[in-house]
Design a protein that fits this description.
Blueprint: H1 2-9, E1 12-16, H2 18-25, E2 32-37, H3 40-51, E3 54-58, E4 63-67, E5 73-78, H4 82-85, H5 94-103, E6 113-115, E7 124-125, H6 130-136, E8 138-139, H7 146-149, H8 152-164, E9 167-168, H9 170-181, H10 190-201, H11 206-215, H12 230-249, H13 257-267, H14 271-280, H15 285-296, H16 298-305, H17 313-320, H18 325-335, H19 338-349, H20 360-365, H21 372-386, H22 393-401
Parallel strand pairs: 2-5, 8-9
Antiparallel strand pairs: 1-2, 1-6, 3-4, 4-5, 6-7
Bound molecules: adenosine-5'-triphosphate.
Protein name: CBS domain-containing protein
Family: Belongs to the tRNA nucleotidyltransferase/poly(A) polymerase family.
GO molecular function, one term: tRNA binding
Length: about 400
Amino acid sequence: EAGRLADRLNVSLYVVGGCVRDLLLGIENLDLDLVVEGDGILFARKLAEAKQARVKAHDRFGTAIVLLPDGFKLDVATARTEYYEYPTALPTVEQSSIKKDLYRRDFTINALAVRLNAKGFGEVLDFYGGQRDLHDKIVRVLHGLSFVEDPTRVFRAIRFAVRFGFRLGRDTEALIEGAVKMNLFHRLSGHRLLEELKLLLAERDAMQAVKRMADFGLLRFIHPKLGWSSRLQAGLRAAEQALGWYRLLYLDREIAGWLVYVVALLEVLPERAVADVLKRFPFTQAEAAVIRAARLNGQAIVRQLSRRPPPKPAQVYRLLCGLSDETLLGLMARSKAEAIMRAISAFLTTYQHVKPLLTGADLKAMGLKPGPQFKQILDRLLDARLNGEVHTELDERDLAAR
Ligand code: ATP
């Protein structure tokens, strides 16, 4: 349908990038990136019109996002033609502008396009050997200056290699080593580096991703003191196990898994270094709170939870309430003790959802005077319920009146 619209507008239309890669790998990918040879924004507007979709256009970049009513999202870009770069040259043949567009991409496997116009529909454009590299399972840059142009590609290379179980091309590997030697990453803002790090740590095999970073000496760009060690490995494995356990139990709840790995990474650093990392990277306040909570209160909470005799449910609740799930998993990963697992598990599955039967309104109806002591009474009722000391509403009324 989009192809027919392109034909009518007399422009060439291609689907490009990760979506083509995943299609050829047989992996589902719902992000559709389109490239138009011609006016991409006009095409996006017409497409949106036909589909009753919304458009957000960035005129400066010739790109637009089309938001379809069913939540599906299309990215539309304009292939930069040679016309812009060489004002005196004649307009070039049709294919050269998509070819140039693909040349600006990161890896051969991401530089494939499929034609959507009626003429040549479904044709794969593969100027740089992307299909061969998909077949041989290799992540390869398109040219020697790729990482100089954009050092974040180093992290992207590791991300795709780890995700698909690919290796890095030999030249690509050498270029990464060169980029590390040249310290190209100091040029990156904390923001961009953090974005890449998040994506890497959100991969299913995040531990492998960190290992590959370590192999290239990339961890020191997170902090100079950070390096691979058996302690770090154990911490990452524990984070992985905690996350695996959590996902089995709470499939319907989102968790920032990457943050649990960040906690594990920073766990091996001294306090000063963690402060540096929190300064260099723009974590949100909530994220920084998770990192701090896991470190500062972690030890104390773990100690309390593992003390003998074991704390009562209400005590467990009071220790853990107010901590995010990420912090709880950080605690779990840190201690790995059976008692901690059990306490956190009970908190997440049960204690968190317990409420007293009586409400503030009930207390008022009982003739109690509203005020700060209401909260105390309700807290007392909750604790008693958590500990199984009250059962019926009458029990609660007795306790409230005391
Ligand atoms: P994912 O499945 O992780 O989303 P993706 O390949 O779709 O993978 P995106 O970051 O959405 O990744 O990028 C879409 C496409 O844009 C890539 O396939 C690649 O062609 C191009 N691209 C993205 N980032 C860069 C970059 N830093 N340098 C060059 N090309 C890039």
